[in-house]
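Open question from group meeting: does this chain pack into something compact, or does most of it stay loose? Before anyone orders reagents, we agreed to write out a predicted structure and look at it together. Recording both the input and the output here so the notebook holds the full record.
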Amino acid sequence: MTNIPEANNTHAHNQTRIGIVASQFNSFVVERLLKGCIQTLEGKGIVYTIVRVPGAFEIPVAVKALIKNSECDAVVALGAIIRGETPHFEYIANECSRGLASIALELETPVIFGVLTVNTTEQALDRAGSEESNKGVEAALAAIDMVTTMKVLRE
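Structure tokens returned:
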């Protein structure tokens, strides 16, 4: 059984490159996710690139372009889809998640789903709020873990 190295080792990540695609819609939530993600990556000495898109529906195409046209080892997708009074929520959430999963499998590059899909603004803020509960932090850590895992699997 192969042991995957711990992702917390800063020295192992000095050459890691992470892309971040962040939605501008619901920016009062997404900016908090982005801040947590950036602080986590910077704390580990990881180089990152940020691409902003209008909304969650546009995230997958930007993720795919970023992977194909840069040297990202993984991409973190950040957004906030908050349920409204119409079925729009389901369409956007489904297509965003389906698109991101498809890209990760097709291009064999980790794509981390940091897109909140919540019923209320309060739920969104709870998940993007403090350092202990910031899904942007969790997404950054997942990206780091997956980069490490993929490097081992490709050896």
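Observations to bring back to the group:
Residues 15-154 form a domain with the Rossmann fold fold (CATH 3.40.50.960).
The longest strand covers residues 74-82.
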